[in-house]
Design brief:
Length: 760
């Protein structure tokens, strides 16, 4: 009979217990023993929950102390050479040092996990020789079995994906590195087999990207090696996030099961399986419940899909499962007491998705009538949201349709605007600025809580925010920055803040998901038509500008980032949602300009992460993403300087699209990737204003002047000094006061050195 399966569960806990434990440990408030004990209890609770809901194949080793890619790297002793390491099990101090940096060594690069908002730590090869330091899947399996009696399904990141996500090796060295890693995987698998493990889930999401024939040959060799080494161990080769490339080659690999995404990869995977069939001797992991979205599944539609698949795959070889790990969704809907009833009824977070998996599995085994009540309830709940007035605002729909049919562009070219802006602002060579936010201390967070709970009046809170602005305007002037910001002390999150002020959004109380490390975000839900209601940022920005003679940037989050960092409705296209957001934000840009703000930053850090994984879909996405940005910014005067910011992504393949956004100044992360982005500009000209971040704000270490000077010098070998800005990588919200001031002082000192060198 069909079985239920889950690919992974959220790490963070219903009340972010995971985050709190990590940060307490880092702060020295928890000793390692207590820390380990707290995380074990959380981990067991997650397994217990899946056990109680009747999931047949429960993933183990999906829990992480920071990031599962970093876990894989440290399991194999892949330690960057700049970190002292003498072999053996990697201690937590080193593990977290690689992720966060130390006073003596920079953190490893962090980038997006495929096209999600989760960040992973990029493994760096070429340091220590790989070796198995500990068998983490085996440890997780034993724990689940001994503590809860669960016959777990260990999860391992596959060798081809792990290598493809790593850095520090040349393409021609691929086979040599696989020759190092594959025997280590064999050792892990053999130890699991000896323990009596029945199924192992090997994640190879790289298989949904475009691979060449050499990689398919490598894949075949890898899994033939596994089959020979562990002939009695069942391997579920798991893919997700899109349809697989080279379907016919992949399904013939010597594994016992293939996991396919029938949500985000539905069209391609369904076409492949219908046209080419599926091996009778393999299990199909049918990922039909969305592991990335928060909407309740249409159970009738999913049953229809399962019926189609059941005609191709025998029922006793069908696994009903999530499309990917539930890492990307919040834990549970049950505590959300402030949502509109029609919205709450249409939501499914991780725990509710477990219920959906169990229901659909029961329907496959016992027939649809066995869940008739659940089907009827689902029909009613989905219809309630569809008929919501929030989803049927004809005024918004018609206006946006008209505006989006036009070609948005500034009134004059960048070259002309640059002259006018230089004449207006009279900035020195290499203007210095920051990305927008300054440290949000415990005092700031407490003030916000007091206001939200009603203990403070809006006037008290506004006065507090003005006091913070006063402090940081003065600090910025003392540090010597040229273009200032107000600090964003009134903002909890760069997306949530705007969503709370726009129509069409809803907000959860506990809908947290992991972004990177202990950083958790609570994505807004775009469930209706988006519309501007009133000015959102003018008051604070205008106040800050009144406190200084230097320019203060207005700070907005762009339409694509708001969309990509939200959970969005599924009844209209993402392009339509982007245009609704763009029109609403355009009205805010115009309000700032009318209030006398002549520099406006519209941040788009998430443009790259929304790029489709399939090459044939990327051009269309970039076209409407660029159009949405230009819709937001195109109506300002030529002297109004539009800034934007992007971070922690690889941009080498979209430099043309970045330039097409036509921002006067763009700031892009480059320090954590150790300046590698500069190589893109060595091969591509860029003729607009640009600031390459000269230090990593995600690390608590204070960068030295010499480090930033070196970054500046390299950048200026390929970029026009007259268009170059100097700034940190990203916002400074999560940093402390002293380290922020010291880092910015060093940045200004590095700038002064550069001015002396390049102004001569």
């Amino acid at each position: 009979m069909a079985k239920s399966s889950v690919l992974g569960y959220p790490r963070i806990g219903q009340n972010r217990e995971w985050k709190k434990a990590l940060e307490a440990f880092w702060a020295g408030k928890l000793d390692e023993s207590t820390f380990q004990s707290q995380l074990q209890e959380l981990r067991l609770n997650h397994l217990r929950k899946q056990q109680e809901k009747g999931i047949d194949f429960i993933a183990v080793n999906d829990f992480s102390y920071y990031d599962h890619v970093l876990d894989t790297a440290t399991m194999f002793g892949v330690i960057p050479s700049r970190f002292p390491y003498e072999g053996g099990v990697v201690p937590l101090s080193l593990y977290y040092g690689i992720a966060r940096g130390t006073k003596d060594a920079t953190a490893s690069e962090m980038t997006k996990w495929f096209n999600t908002n989760y960040h992973y730590i990029v493994p760096e090869l070429g340091g220590t020789e790989p070796v198995v330091t500990e068998n983490k899947p085996l440890i997780a399996y034993r724990e689940a079995k001994e503590k809860l009696g669960i016959e777990g399904k260990p999860v391992i990141l596959g060798p081809l994906t792990f290598l493809k996500l790593s850095k520090g090796y040349k393409l021609e060295e691929t086979d040599a590195w696989l020759a190092r890693f594959v025997p280590l995987y064999v050792q892990i698998l053999q130890e699991l087999a000896e323990e009596g493990v029945q199924w192992v889930q090997i994640d190879e999401p790289i298989l949904v990207t475009e691979l060449g024939g050499d990689d398919i040959a490598r894949l075949k060799k890898i899994y033939e090696t596994f089959a020979s080494a562990v002939p009695h161990l069942n391997i579920l080769l798991q893919t997700y996030f899109e349809s697989v490339e080279h379907y016919n080659d992949i399904v013939q690999l010597p594994v016992q099961g293939i996991g396919l995404d029938f949500v985000h990869g539905l069209a391609g995977n369904l076409k492949s399986i219908q046209e080419s069939g599926f091996p009778a001797d393999k299990f199909l992991g049918a990922g039909i419940i969305d592991g990335r979205g928060i909407w309740k599944a249409d159970l009738r539609e999913k049953l229809g899909l399962l019926e189609v698949l059941s005609k191709i795959v025998a029922e006793d070889r069908l696994l009903v499962q999530t499309s990917c790990s539930l890492l990307h969704v919040p834990v549970t809907v049950k505590n959300e007491t402030k949502l509109l009833p029609e919205l709450k009824d249409a939501l499914a977070f991780a725990d509710e998705k477990l219920d959906e998996i169990a229901l659909l599995t029961k329907a496959v085994v016992d027939g649809a009538d066995s869940i008739s009540d659940a089907l009827a309830r689902c029909d009613k709940e989905l219809l309630g949201l569809k008929q919501s007035s929030e989803r049927n605002r004809k005024d918004v729909q018609q206006t946006v349709a008209t505006i989006s049919a036009q070609h948005p562009e500034r009134s004059r070219s960048f070259a002309d605007r640059h002259i006018a802006q230089q004449d207006k602002w009279q900035l020195p060579i290499f203007p210095t600025t920051t990305i927008g936010s300054f440290p949000q201390s415990a005092e700031v967070r407490k003030a916000r809580q007091l206001w939200r709970k009603g203990d403070w009046t809006p006037e008290q809170y506004a006065s507090f925010i003005r006091d913070q602005i006063d402090i940081w305007i003065k600090l910025q002037e003392e540090i010597g920055l040229d273009v200032l910001v107000h600090g964003e002390f009134e903002r909890t999150d760069m997306v949530e803040f705007f969503g709370e002020k726009l129509a069409g959004f809803a907000f959860t109380l506990f809908g947290w998901v992991q972004s990177y490390g202990s950083r958790c975000v609570k994505p807004p839900i775009i469930f209706g038509d988006v519309a501007f209601e009133e000015a959102m940022t003018v008051e604070e920005t205008k106040y800050a500008q009144s406190k200084t003679e230097r320019p203060v940037k207005g700070m907005l989050t762009g339409p694509i980032t708001i969309m990509n960092w939200s959970f969005v409705r599924e009844d209209i296209t993402r392009e339509q949602i982007a245009y609704q957001l763009a029109y609403a934000l355009r009205q805010e840009v115009e309000a700032l300009e009318q209030a006398g703000i002549g520099m406006i930053q519209v941040d788009e850090p998430a443009v790259r992460e929304g790029l489709p994984l399939k090459a044939e879909d990327q051009a269309a996405y970039l076209a409407w993403a660029v159009k949405a940005f230009r819709m937001t910014t195109c109506t300002v005067q030529e002297t109004t300087q539009i800034h934007t910011h992007m971070c922690y992504c690889e941009f080498h393949d979209m430099i043309d699209s970045i330039e097409a956004m036509d921002a006067d100044v763009i700031s892009i992360e480059t320090s954590r990737s150790h300046g590698e982005l500069i190589h893109s500009f060595e091969q591509n000209t860029y003729e607009l204003g640009i600031g390459l971040g000269v230090y990593d704000i995600h690390s608590p270490r204070v960068p030295q002047v010499e480090e930033m000077t070196g970054m500046i010098d390299r950048a200026l070998r390929v970029l026009d000094p007259n268009l170059f800005w100097i700034n940190p990588d990203c916002g400074l919200k999560t940093r402390g006061l002293e380290e922020t001031v010291e880092s910015l002082r060093n940045m200004v000192e590095a700038t002064q050195i550069a001015r002396g060198k390049y102004s001569a």
